[in-house]
Structures are given as C-alpha cells and as structure tokens.
Amino acid sequence: MKWQAGVCLALLLPGMAMATSLEEATRAVMEMTLRANDGPASEPRSGEAGLTLDEVLQLALRDNLGLASKGVALQGRQASTSASYRKMLPTLTLTTNRSDILLNTVAAGSRAETFGSTATLTQPVYRGGALWDGWKAAEIQERQAQLDLQHAARSLTRDVKAAWYALLEKQELLKEAEAAMTRLHQHEKNAQAFFREGRIWRNEILQANVKVAQGEQNLITAQNQVELARAELNRLMRRPLDHPLEPKGELSWTPLNWTLEQAYEHARKNRKDLEKSHLDVQVGQLTESITGSATRPQVTLTGAYSLDSPSSSYHENDAVMTAVLSASWTAWNWGQTSQEVKAAKANTFKSQLAYDDQLQTVLLETRKAFLSAREAAKKVEVIKKSLQQSEENYRVNQIRYQEQLGSATDVLDAMDLLTNSRNNHTSALAAYLTALSTLDLAVGVEPQEGDKHASDPGKRP
After folding, report:
1. How far is CA 230 from the centre of its chain?
2. C-alpha separations of 282 from 82, 272, 397 in Å
3. Which residue, 104, 103, 97, 101, is CA-closest to 112?
4. What's the pLDDT tens digit per position in 366-411?
5. Can you give the pLDDT at residue 309?
C-alpha cells in the first residue's frame, strides 16, 4: 500500500538527499542536448578566425538566454520534487516555555516559576495517499520541465541552423554581387573600346554606366544583408550583435532520407512536447487521487519528550516521554470533496483531449515539414538546370557581342539572367537545408554533433 511504502521510505531513508543536486541535474540535461549519437561535441576552439556549425551550436546551447530560462524552471521543479518527498519524512519540533503564577489566593505572597521544554517527533503514517501522490506528481512535473528544456534545445538548434544557412547564403550572394560587378566593369571597358573604334553608339556606354551603378547598389545591399545575418547568429549565441564572426563551411547538398511514414513514427515517439502533453494526463489522475484523500483517514504517529523544572538550569526536573498514534476522518462535508474530485476528473479529461489534439498537430507539422523539404529539394534540381542554361547563354552572348553579331542589351540581359540564376540557386539550396532542419525539429531529432549539410564542403547538386 502507498502509506506502507511511505512509512518504509521515511524510516529507512530519513537523511537521504536527492540523488543529484540541482546544478548537477541541470548540467546533465544541458549536456544531453549537446550530445550526438557517438558522443559529446568538442569544445569551441579559441583563437581561430571562424567557427564551424557544431561549434556555433554548442555556444548557443550553452549561452542562449531562452534556454537558460528553461534551465532555471527545471531547477525550480527539482526543488519542488525534493520538498514533496520530504513531506513524508519525520519532523522534529522543539518548544520551550516559562510559566509564572502572578496571583495565588491560597498561598498569598508566593510567586512560582516553572520552565518546560519539549521535543516532538511527528511521522505522518497515512494521509489518504496524498503525500505519496503529491511526490509522484512533482516527479512528473519535473520530467515535464526536462522535456521543456530538451524541446527548447531542439528549437534553438533549428533556429541556429536557419541563421547559419542564412549567413552562408548572404555571403554567397555577396560574392556573386562582387563577381557581377567584375563582369559589369569588364563590359563597360569593352563598350568604351568599341565606342572609340566607332563600332557602337554612345547610348550603349551610358547603358553600361547605369548597370554599373545598379550593381554598386546591389553590392551595398548584399553587404548589409551579410551584417544582419551575422547579427542574428550572434544574438542566438548571446554575443554582441557586431561581434566578428566568420563561418567555416559552405552550403552543400544532402539527400532527404525520410519517408512520410518514417517521419510520422519518429515524431510520435520522440516529440518532447507531445510526451509532455501525455504526462499532463498522468498529473491529472494523481490530482484526482490527492483531491479525494480529504475524506480518507489521516493517521499520525507522534513521539514527545518533555522536561519540567522550577529553574531555567533544569538541574531538578521531571521528564515525561509519550507516544501517540492518532487518527482522524472527515466522514461528511456536504459533498464538497466529491464535487472537487468531479472537477479534477474534468480537468483530466480536458488534458486527454489536449493530448489528442496535440498529436494531430504534431502529425500535421511533420507532414508540412516533409512536403516543404521535398518541394525545396525539387526546386534546387530545377534551378540547377536553369543555372546551366544561363551560364551557356551568357557565354554565347559574350561571343556574339565581341563579333558584333549581338547587342549590348543582349549581353546585359544574359548577365542579369546569370546573376539571378546563381542567386536563386544559392537561396534555394539554403532554403532546402533550412527545410531539413525544420523537418528534424518536427520529427524530434536530437541536436547532432556537427552538421554535414553545411559545415563540411561538399559537391553541390
């Protein structure tokens, strides 16, 4: 029975502390979020110009303020669990008093003083299961706080990856803007040479000048986007927004290895927010039992040792030791407890409905993330073909312009098409990798050590 187990725990483990201190437990959970399948991630290297994705992830998981707040919430739940357990242990109460007789008509003029001290040890034997169920409910709520922390770590991992891919994307777009400026300057020189030879009109030189000016504006925009992307990544790592950061890696292709059914199955088993919602049902059931304990017997064992003495030195004293086993039972309270139990059952049913709804939400999120990733993968393939065509188109139009078989407008249009195709390919690849990280979050993948999608150079599709 629950009360027997509670008494055994109280008698056998009166001085037991919780197995793990608050700091150690929190550290263990935090380390778990940093651990990959094969072991912990390496410490971020200092004194180097750039950071890899796994190093950025480790810094973010260590220093992010949102994750730190979840860690503090977990510490609070651990303290609550410890306090709930200690409610089942004996309590020691010390009391002392002094008593003066101020008026005594039997013995006029006498003044008597007595001193008394009592040590009372109280052991709750049975509280209708309320103490035991309260402890178990606190343990479940502590587990929920751990799940909150783990889910926050996964969400942060997704945000860091998205910011990382965005920074790599903006850097690639900046490189392309610089390359486009080189092509525009070369075209401007060619146009000036042709004009001096009388082979083209001045209008084509003016056209080239306008394109160069537009290219300079695009270059400034690309530089600003890089700075903003760097600031976002620094924010997630709790660094100054203008902290220098050069990522070590590049966008690289990785295949989509999930099927929809595999994603569904993994999400059902590994989504921490779904598990937390399921634990709400168990907490509700324990709350029902705790509420109903008000009309069950309450049994308490009390031992007391008292000393009475006429002086505060207690040289002469009378000692009394007592042991009391008391029981009380609230037999009738006009149905108050039954109504409270009914309300608790309604809350439990509400939690069950919320879990069912959460399950459908998780499956929908998984489906959306899977379809988005598959769509993004197809978009990369299509844009790759378009990029090949635009590169060949630019090469042909350059030759035709050199031979005066094509116009400057044809070259500039081909140049714009090439720049846009390269930018679209970079953005599509970054969007695909971001979609993969979103899918990982949706199916409940643990934060991994490193990220082969972007931290290691690879062949692009």
Report:
1. 21
2. 19, 16, 71
3. 101
4. 999 999 999 999 999 999 989 999 989 889 988 888 887 888 888 8
5. 87
Please give the model's pTM, rounded to 2 decimal places: 0.76
CA angle 263, 54, 438 (to 5 degrees): 30
Pull the structure tokens for residue 239. Answer: 């660094």
Token couple for 258 = 């999930």
Token representation of residue 84 = 């709930």
Which of residues 427 and 38 earns the better pLDDT score?
Answer: 427
Q: How far apart are CA 448 and CA 35, in angstroms?
A: 7
What's the Cα-to-Cα distance from 129 to each of 5, 81, 88, 282, 299, rounded to whole Å?
Answer: 10, 16, 11, 15, 11
Residues 146/74, Cβ–Cβ less than 8 Å? yes
Task: Tell me the C-alpha distance between 287 and 340, whole Å.
Answer: 10
Structural domains of the chain, ranges and CATH numbers in brackets: 47-100+111-443 (1.20.1600.10)
For the stretch 237-268, pLDDT in tens is 999 999 988 899 889 888 998 999 999 999 99
> Which of these, 320, 267, 299, lies nearest to 439 by C-alpha position?
267
